[in-house]
Write a structure and sequence with these properties.
Blueprint (H helix, E strand, L loop, with lengths): L2 H12 L2 H27 L3 H8 L3 H8 L7 H10 L14
GO molecular function: DNA binding
Protein name: Helix-turn-helix domain-containing protein
Organism: Shewanella holmiensis
């Protein structure tokens, strides 16, 4: 697919309200994954080391970092703690 074809497709798809809603749902998931990876990189730890700190399997950490699990707040808190961070949840009004 040519770059212009891809740009045209993105434009058409982005005009679909259903697409935008689903994209926003995934955007939050991607942001969480990015934060997890940033914490682990900052801590200089491997997935195996995180798993050991959390008392779980390395495959569980891999799934978590790939967005292939539905983690609980307890899991996210444990991951953050294993990396030397604390979990903080914030909110703000939606922008229109």
């Amino acid at each position: 697919m040519k770059n212009t074809d891809l740009q045209s497709l993105k434009k058409r798809v982005s005009e679909d309200p259903g697409f935008n809603e689903e994209y926003q749902k995934l955007n939050l998931e991607f942001m969480v994954i990015d934060v997890l990876l940033s914490m682990r990189k900052s801590a200089g730890l491997t997935q195996r080391q995180i798993a050991m700190h959390m008392g779980t399997k390395e495959t569980n950490i891999s799934r978590l970092e790939k967005g292939r699990s539905n983690p609980t707040l307890k899991t996210l808190e444990g991951y953050a703690k294993a990396c030397g961070f604390e979990l903080k949840i914030d909110y703000r009004p939606l922008s229109n």
